[in-house]
Amino acid sequence: MREIISSIKRTPYQSLTAFFVLLLTLFLSLILFVSLSFINSGLSYLETRPQVTIYFQTKTPENDIFKVRDELNASGKVSSIKYISQKEAFNIYKDMNKDNPLLLEMVTSEILPPSLEVYAKKPSFLPEIAEFLNKQSGVDEVQYQKDVIDRLLTLTGILRKGSFIFFAYLILMSIVVLTTTFLFKIALKKDDIELLQLIGASKNYIRAPYIKEGLFLGNLAATISFVTLMGIILFINPFLSSYLSGITRLTFNISSLEIVVWPLNPIFFAIVYVISLFFGSGISYISSLIATNKYLKV
Exposed, middle or buried: residue 255 (CB in 10 Å: 0-12, 13-18, 19+)? Predict the structure, then answer.
């Protein structure tokens, strides 16, 4: 540790440059990761709701409804379908209006329509499903949140592509700037390095201090960027609680691992911090390795 601090003191401007480049890169990367986590989990949440509700005319025979259900199941675009009969619809209505006897007296099961609640395998299938249902006989109304889902799908696609391009640009520029910075630091210690080479020091021994310093700066920048971002998230937590009221849980999956994004929890924070450390250390290590290899002509 003393060696790292001593190296930073010898070349403070280069070290500060490397640190701030890392800090900006990691902070922006974490913002992208957290934003995409919330958007992907929001999309997953919508996938658990009855995405399309089909109301049939009250006189539609059950066999016709089941025929539509079977055709949807055969399409391969539906994960599940729930049939709600007129009696079940009336029971739901009674439960919703149990505190208002007047409304209960005005409604009977005969006037409530039977319906199907459809869960699509992918939100992108919803327009096709809705179009198919609108063409079926006996269908009175097809309801689904077309505008919300279309906007969310569009926003998710733009963010995914844009984030990948922006993230790749950030990483590339960071490595270029950090490599140049480390080359300046190495050049300032040219005499020391030549002396070490004359007495037979290995290239790994010469390279080690610069890699250690890079890892130290990377971990420090990762920690500060994480603390800053978490402070911002906790500050806007009341707004998030109000905006996401009624949503008890938001999650997204990485392979078979389910990550809970909302409500805010220590496990999600820990994952964000580990990602920050991983990228901070990785960028620093690659940059210092390129710089030392270039100078030592490996």
Answer: exposed
Predicted model pTM: 0.65
Give the separation between CA 207 and CA 203, rounded to whole angstroms: 6
Give CA separation, 64 vs 67, 83, 188, in Å: 5, 12, 83
Whole-number pLDDT of residue 225: 92
Peptide bond into 263 cis (omega under 30): yes
Class of domain 52-144: alpha beta
Give the Cβ contact number of residue 134 at 10 Å.
11
Across 170-180, average pLDDT: 81
Tell me 111's DSSP state. G
Backbone φ and ψ for 260, nearest 5 degrees, come out as -85, 120
Chain centroid to CA 135: 37
**Residue labelled with tokens 């003191």:** 9
CA angle 74/120/114 to nearest 5° reads 80
CB 132 within 8 A of CB 41: no
127: amino acid identity, one letter = P
The two three-digit tokens of residue 55, written as one number: 């109301």
Average pLDDT, integer, range 120-129: 78
Both tokens assigned to 226: 């994480």
- Indicate the DSSP class of residue 254: E
Q: Is 211 left (phi over 0), alpha (psi -120 to 50) or beta?
A: alpha
For the chain, the domains span: 2-46+149-296, 52-144
SS3 content of the chain, % helix, strand, coil (to 5): 70, 10, 15
- In whole angstroms, how far apart are CA 48 and each of 44, 82, 116, 223, 247? 7, 13, 15, 35, 12
Tokens matching residue 128:
């096709």
Query: Measured on CA atoms in the order 78, 82, 85, 91, is the torsion positive or negative?
Result: negative
- For residue 270, count other CB atoms closer than 10 A to its CB: 10
